[in-house]
Design brief:
The chain is α/β, with parallel strands linked by helices and 244 residues long. 27% of the residues lie in helices and 18% in strands. It has helices spanning 3-22, 36-59, 82-90, 98-101, 128-137; strands at residues 124-125, 148-156, 163-169, 178-185, 195-202, 216-224. The longest helix is centred in the N-terminal third of the chain and has 24 residues, at 36-59. The model has no long low-confidence stretch (mean pLDDT 83).
């Protein structure tokens, strides 16, 4: 790979990062939102390095030594570095979804001993993680009989009836992604990766308030919603579902 192609690779990589962070939300498919400033800074540095290197080459020897030998070559495998650089500009890999979630065990929710009283809203907006904690750890059984609303995407269930309402959560980047799932009984059978808002009540299975209780829901309504911009979180449902 000649010197001018190395410069092109630097510039393309920098522009790809800036495109993903400044002119779109593509970076949220790979890393947490808090990492955006570092990605922008990295993109700017890569572009500046490429421009500075090109300027120096025009003034200097263009990668050739005083002996007339070209020492600018690198292994041909370096050409593969162009693929991720171009993909950021021309083609964005799809976000993680049902394919990933169906092939891994759900994330274990954190232990919690004390629970605040639930708001009186009905249906109650709640995250999948909080719902699971209430079902399996709340000895006061506050979730019993309460109609709740959650949002996530559809993942086909491996066994039994129903399907899984799913959220994928990342700690740093897509490589450490884990999923949280709530089994949904009833409602239409929608395609995998469809984002939905589900309202319903806890599906009695196991002893409520203990680890034997299954995080499952008897659906009353299931409505398609838009995929959130930042989908790698377990946020409260922001889009209200309307009863048919």
């Amino acid at each position: 790979m000649k010197r001018h192609l190395q410069v092109l690779l630097l510039v393309l990589s920098g522009l790809g990062l800036l495109h993903a962070c400044l002119f779109s939300d593509l970076y949220l498919r790979y890393v947490k939102e808090q990492m955006r400033p570092m990605l922008i800074a990295s993109g700017v540095v890569l572009v500046l390095l490429g421009v500075a290197s090109a300027a120096l080459d025009r003034r200097g020897h263009g990668g050739e030594s005083h002996h007339g030998h070209d020492h600018s070559g690198v292994p041909r495998v370096a050409w593969l570095l162009f693929l991720p650089a171009l993909s950021l500009l021309l083609y964005a890999p799809p976000a993680l979804g049902a394919y990933t979630a169906a092939r891994e065990a759900p994330k274990a929710v954190a232990r919690q001993s004390d629970f605040d009283p639930l708001p009186a809203a009905s249906p109650l907006p709640i995250t999948l993680s909080d719902f699971t904690r209430r079902v399996q750890q709340d000895r006061e059984l506050a979730i019993k009989g309460r109609e709740v609303r959650m949002t996530g995407f559809v993942t086909p269930a491996k066994g039994g009836d129903g399907w899984d309402l799913t959220r994928i959560i990342i700690s740093c980047c897509a490589a450490d992604a884990q999923s949280v799932k709530v089994r949904v009984h009833g409602g239409p059978a929608l395609p995998a990766d469809t984002w939905v808002a589900v309202t319903g009540t806890w599906h009695p299975q196991g002893t409520l308030g203990t680890r034997s209780a299954v995080a499952a829901l008897d659906a009353r309504t299931v409505k398609e919603v838009e995929r959130p911009v930042n989908a790698y979180t377990d946020d409260l449902p922001l889009v209200p579902s309307r009863d048919p």
